[in-house]
Amino acid sequence: MAKPPPPPPPRTDGSGESRFPKTDPRWSRLLLWLAMFAVLAIFFVPSFTPSTAGDEISYDQFIQQVDEGQICRAEINNLTGEIEGNYLPAEGQSCQADVEAVQDNPAFTSKGPIELSESDRTLLDNAEGLHLSFTTPQSSFWANLIPLLLPIGLLIGFFWWMQRRAQGQIGGIMSIGRSKAKTYSTERPGTTFEDVAGYAGVKQEITEVVEFLKEPEKYAEIGARIPKGMLLVGPPGTGKTLIARAVAGEAGVPFLSVSGSDFMEMFVGVGASRVRDLFESARKMGKAIIFIDEIDSIGRKRGAGLGGGHDEREQTLNQMLSEMDGFETTEGIVMMAATNRPDILDPALLRPGRFDRQVVVPLPELDDRLAILRVHVKGKRTAPDVDLNTVARGAPGMSGADLANLVNEAALFAVRGGDTMIRMQHFESARDRVLMGQKRESTALSPAEKEAIAYHEAGHAVCAAVLPTADPLHKVTIIPSGMALGVTMQLPESERHIYRQDYIEDSLVVRMGGRVAEDMVFGQVSTGANDDLVRNTDLATKMVREWGMSEKVGPMAWGSDGEMFLGDQMVSSKNYSDETATMIDEEVGRILREAEDRCRDTLTTHRLGLDLVARALLERETISGEEVERLLAHAQSGPSETAPQNAAQLTTMPENPASPSDN
């Protein structure tokens, strides 16, 4: 007779624990309480339940009825004084001689003294036909045993609880080297590629790896080898972890997710032990994907000045390098990792055979931003006037997380304003909130400060409106927002991937506009141009030192000093001489002075327009880029006597058909 096949072994997760459904601990506790209640009921419920049904009479009535001969049987408890018995069956009859027959008569209960008086005892003894008996109940074996077992049980329970706690602590120490990876299977798909808007090229590369795991024979026919690892690289908030969650939902194979910080612990060797346990769990699953988020926390360059060769992080990285592509090969296991600092990763981690592909997840382009916005507005009540294309165009440089925050801020503005739908004005307010900060309308400015800020922002606005390669002007405001007392906002017409020298020089002039305007109007400058000067100096330094945009310095680049990483640059020095450094400083100063001279010439040419824009800002506090262009066109078309005297005339001025770049 053939033996039945053995039952399949239980599935295990990455930690080696059984994947069979476990009993809910809440049900276990409920069953324990029910069992305790049942045991208590067995002992205590009978004491509260009357043992004999019948009339309840007082002790005086009992003595009287005994004297009258109406009682056939009486049983008195010597311990409690309780009395139970039976009446005569009917009037004119006598009690039966058989006690068992008497118990069929109507019954009664009463309560008397524990010690009877001599008269009562004489009456009961001499009563004719009365079956009198005295009982002394004996407690049961369990009732006598409970007072002894209760303290013993409490002591046993206390020591059992202490042992469980000690075992838990010991178990926690013994399992400290086990991986903390979370396993996701096909039963928990969660996110899919459809939830990831945009990034068609990124999804295409990752989809190939997912298909390789699903259908390896299709790639094996032509000898293709599955990539060992993929590194997702990109700025924060671009959706690297979201793409990994989509892979977990699409792969169809176990997906182990862990953070880079989960490998590090206060004990030596724990990180390497967890790496070994992670790959061992993945091998037991056959095919699996391991995702390590923020891998830069353990994958940094080895021997970078301060750590030394025996640093715990280096030992963890060495173990990971060995597991990915060491002496023993790992087939069917694909590594995925995400980081926004690929420059600090160890070169051995990035070589082919470990992380074969580096998938760049950049900031979304215009089309990608539009697709992301469409995903985030789903389920939200938007008004018909909302143009997501305009919103996407007005959000250059925003990541997917920034766009999600933008939509949420617009919804909050709609609720704050008492509106039932998200309108375009709410998106405008949300963008200003994200880019410029919260408006500080309560900030009290003196008239002199307000006028200085108005001319400062007007200087930026005029330069941005008339310079040929500057980004189009979108809005100017003198309402304090965030850390700024006023803001001039420009929005690019299209995505820029490289920046020409004329565009950079015009951006220098635009930032100089505030300082030069204050000097021209008031004859002195203020501290309001601090941020403009810092940004201009940094930009001019890069033009000379990194981008080769100085004829005197020539086509040479030395790079920036950058930030020190783990002592990597503690002993490094500049790779150019002091004479070259002096020449760089002179060129930076020359570029900034030329930008200031161009700005002064521009504002002198459009001085009337500068006054009109400043006056409009003082009256309305916020004006659009189109209104600035109309004011400049009006200033070019007539003398100062025709200038508008109040803000109401701004919207009725005719538009200038000429482009600002023609002025």
Concise overview:
The chain has 663 residues and is α/β, with parallel strands linked by helices. Helix content is 46%, strand content 10%.
List keywords for this structure.
single chain; 663 residues; alpha/beta; Signal recognition particle alu RNA binding heterodimer, srp9/1; Rossmann fold; Helicase, Ruva Protein, domain 3; 4 domains; 5-stranded mixed β-sheet; 21 helices; elongated; disordered N terminus; disordered C terminus
Q: What topology does this entry show?
A:
Blueprint: H1 25-48, E1 55-56, H2 59-67, E2 71-77, E3 82-87, H3 99-102, E4 107-111, H4 118-126, E5 131-135, H5 141-174, E6 182-184, H6 200-214, H7 216-220, E7 229-233, H8 240-250, E8 255-259, H9 270-284, E9 288-293, H10 312-325, E10 333-339, H11 347-350, E11 357-360, H12 366-376, H13 388-393, H14 400-416, H15 424-436, H16 447-466, E12 473-477, E13 487-490, H17 501-522, H18 530-545, H19 578-605, H20 607-620, E14 622-624, H21 625-637
Structural features, described:
This protein folds into 4 domains: 55-135, Signal recognition particle alu RNA binding heterodimer, srp9/1, CATH 3.30.720.210; 182-360, 3-Layer(aba) Sandwich (Rossmann fold); 366-436, Helicase, Ruva Protein, domain 3 (Orthogonal Bundle); 447-560 and 576-662, Up-down Bundle (Methane Monooxygenase Hydroxylase, Chain G, domain 1). α18 (530-545) crosses α19. It has helices at 25-48, 59-67, 99-102, 118-126, 141-174, 200-214, 216-220, 240-250, 270-284, 312-325, 347-350, 366-376, 388-393, 400-416, 424-436, 447-466, 501-522, 530-545, 578-605, 607-620, 625-637; strands at residues 55-56, 71-77, 82-87, 107-111, 131-135, 182-184, 229-233, 255-259, 288-293, 333-339, 357-360, 473-477, 487-490, 622-624. The chain is of the alpha/beta class and 663 residues long. It has a 6-stranded mixed beta sheet with strand order 6-8-9-10-7-11.
